[in-house]
Amino acid sequence: MPKKTRRSYRRANIEVTETTYLPGIIDTLQDLVTKEVHIGVQGDEETAMIAGIHEYGSLKAGIPARSFVGTGKKKAQAPISKTVKAGVIELVTGNLNTKDLLQQIGDVGLGRVVKNFDKLRTPPLSPIYAKRKGNKKILHDEETLRDSLTSVVVSKGGRRR
Fold first, then answer.
1. Helix (H, G, I), strand (E, B) or coil at 11
2. What does the alpha-carbon distance between residue 44 and residue 54 come to, in Å, rounded to a whole number?
3. Residue 47: its pLDDT value, please?
4. Which helix (H) or strand (E) holds 136?
5. 3-state class of 63 per DSSP?
6. Residue 4: what are its φ and ψ, rounded to 5°?
7. Is there a contact between 52 and 40 (Cβ–Cβ < 8 Å)?
8. CA 50 distance to own-chain centroid
9. DSSP-derived 3-state class of residue 87
10. How far apart, in whole angstroms, are the C-alpha atoms of residue 133 and residue 142?
11. Alpha-carbon span 62 to 53, nearest angstrom
């Protein structure tokens, strides 16, 4: 009788052998793909309006777009990808749970959005408006707006979990 050969396949730095419990891995990954992380501004009605005007601009008020959330998310893509790659390996090996991985992703993304918010300096205020305003701060009520940046884990349908 021929000896049973041991097969091992390696993909994405995860080794799958005969002792690997695939249904458990599939359940864990299924839990991961049913949720997503939302990064944005959360606050009262006035904060939401101010954030929207800064993000998209206002033709009526003559305010140019100064996107801090969208550009921050773009700058966060590479660090988030690294976190996901490392996190999925830890998730499959059982060293991390789905909730913690999603929280890590949110923290990395939020950190980059906040960093982008702090560096935002373009387009500059018009000289006339800066003189009337009394300072050169671009974003209205900067501290409140910065503190309202948040990340939330939700189900893919949009409901919080």
1. strand
2. 16
3. 86
4. none
5. strand
6. -65, 130
7. no
8. 21
9. helix
10. 14
11. 10
* Cis peptide upstream of residue 2 (ω within 30 degrees of 0): no
Residue 85 token pair: 């790659």
What is the phi/psi pair of residue 150, to 5°?
-150, 160
- 153, amino acid identity: V
What local confidence, expressed as pLDDT, does residue 151 receive? 93
CA distances from 139 to 42, 95, 121, 142, 145 (A): 16, 42, 9, 5, 8
- Does the model's pTM come out above 0.85? no
- Do 67 and 117 form a contact (C-beta atoms < 8 A)? no
- Helix ranges restricted to H, the chain: 22-33, 45-56, 69-93, 98-119, 127-133, 142-147
On whether the CB atoms of residues 69 and 151 are closer than 8 A, the answer is: no
Residues of the chain with pLDDT under 50: 8-10
Q: What is the DSSP letter of 125?
A: P
Contact 104, 36 (CB under 8 A): no
